[in-house]
Amino acid sequence: MVELLGAEILGLDGVTAGYRDTVVLEQVSASVGANEAWAVLGRNGVGKTTLLMTIMGLTVLREGRIRFDGGDITNMDTHRRVQAGIGYVSQEREIFPSLTVDENLRVATQPGEWTRERAYDLFPRLAERRRNYGNQLSGGEQQMLAVGRALVGNPKLLLLDEPFEGLAPVIIDTLIGAFARLRRESAIATVLVEQQVELALELTQQALVLDKGQIVWRGASADLAADRDNLAMLVGLQEAR
Amino acid sequence: MAVLDRDTINAVREGFTRHRLSWIDTLPFLFAALMYFFAARYLPLGTQVMIQVAFALSLDLALGYGGIDSLGHVAFFGMGAYAAGLYALYVSSEPLSGLAVAACIGALTGLVTGPLVLRARGLTVVMLTLAIATMLHELANTSAMKPITGGADGLFGFKIAPVFGMFSFDLYGRTAYWYSLGVVAFVFIICKLVVNSPFGLAVRGMRDNPVRMRMLGVNVTARLVTLYCVSGALAAMAGGLSAQVTKLVGLDSLAFLVSGNALVMLILGGAGRLYGAIVGATVFVALSDRAAAIDPFNWLFAVGGVLILAVRFAPQGIVGLIADWSQRLGWVRR
Q1: Domain residues of chain B, as ranges?
Q2: Is the ipTM of this complex over 0.95?
């Protein structure tokens, strides 16, 4: 197992979290190094999205601590976490309908290497549509914009919640190309939640599998991808073709 | 369509839908200036229109852009009116500094009540804003406050010095007209600048989706309080203007009716586009005046009827309807 050495960017220590009346995550501990890419896998409803939302401070944290970039962010407000360097692309994309593409990027911009121009360079399609409003975009364009909007916030850690869901294969290819370029050009750690398991394992070095709110497997993505039986058991994958 | 070429139509729609200053923005003010020469009989009515336009613009900033469902915006209007009246009575009769004082009091009111109101959303905001305005209204009428506010008799007996020391307020309302026009232009420009600034973009994003805005690193409550203060300052300027041109501050300048009317104006004109406030306030005041002239007893029937028609056939307001039409005519935005 190849452990990428480097400073820790995100650390979870025995995190138990959920919503007002329910606990979803139990005693989750993990450590993501700077510039690492992690996949978070698991069946539906095991707490993958809750994990990302907990990192963002959008859930009720009952126990445990969260560290980010050397500091404790357990009790930090969401907007401060973002300012500290966590970017979040949610499943719903959540483009502002009454702002143009350009304005959607402008409201999220923080100083750093990722500028609007660079986001347009990454997704030329967005540059063509920069004057269109958020509600005039296709699903794929919205997803590109959601990723671009997270990038211009110049995060050190990017959380992606099912970025490929419901998109046409050609759009998925575009996004995969963009992520590959992103990994090459920038030192941004990534946590990817994705239902398309093989794709997720391909794009990441490390993986963890959640079941009923607990981590049941962790290791190198390549190992899990190779171990088909285990994979099928862990994430309920149909018999590998 | 020989007269209206493509560029003109585009410019008109930009003015109505986009949020930048352009030449089209001078048109309402040119129209108002022309009215001075061609409809001199209606100057006092025009002055009332402009007070309401200024107030509706301030409400549009909070409600149309910020999504703050304020039903108590009159609190700012009334505070500004009393501030300007008291300033003229005890400190100085100079009008511009009086407006500045009114604006400061309005901003202060926003700063004090904002953190209380803006943590909530939706119906709670409606109730809280309404409650604050009602409390101020009652407070102004208490025996303890009567020596200051004049209670139900209102605040009167103050004089307003000539504007710039040159133009004194005359019986025909000529100075008041130009003065009000200047104030409205100022309020309009401030609104345009605010909604176009990065701050304004963030505010519009917050109206769409406050949680997402927080996830982009924006302190939503702090921004909303700032917006509330700016909107409150402008509303208070409208109130101060009303006090200065009528030389009377009645208890009704804190009454719920003022909030309600402004809301009706925004619904008529269309919220969230600034021009909605201008068109809505103009239509509302002019219609009320004409309807009352025709039937002094049942004139509200006409206003109510128009409101029902507007909500049914132009849910985006009159300006929204015009913007839709121009879009449907086939001129696609560049």
Answers
A1: 6-328
A2: no
Residues A106, B204: C-beta atoms closer than 8 Å: no
User: Is the domain defined by A1-85+178-241 classed in CATH 3.40.190.10?
Assistant: no
Amino acid at A122: L
| A158 close to A190: Cβ distance less than 8 angstroms | yes
Residue A195 banded pLDDT, cuts 50, 70, 90: confident
Contacts of B198 in chain A (CB under 8 A): 106-107
Question: Residues B107-164: pLDDT tens digits?
Answer: 999 999 999 999 888 899 999 999 999 999 999 988 888 888 888 888 888 888 888 9
Among A88, A99, A134, whose Cβ lies nearest the Cβ of B215? A88
Cβ within 8 Å, pair B217-A103: no
Alpha helices of A69-196 — where are they, by DSSP H? 78-84, 101-106, 116-122, 124-128, 139-151, 169-185
Of the partner residues B204, B211, B218, the one whose CB lies closest to the CB of residue A99: B204
Quote the CA–CA distance of A74 and A61 in Å, as a whole number: 8
Q: Report how far residue B226's alpha carbon sits from residue B219's, in angstroms, rounded to the nearest whole number.
A: 11
Q: Provide the pLDDT for residue B41.
A: 83
Give contacts of A 125-144 with B, CB under 8 A.
Answer: 131, 134
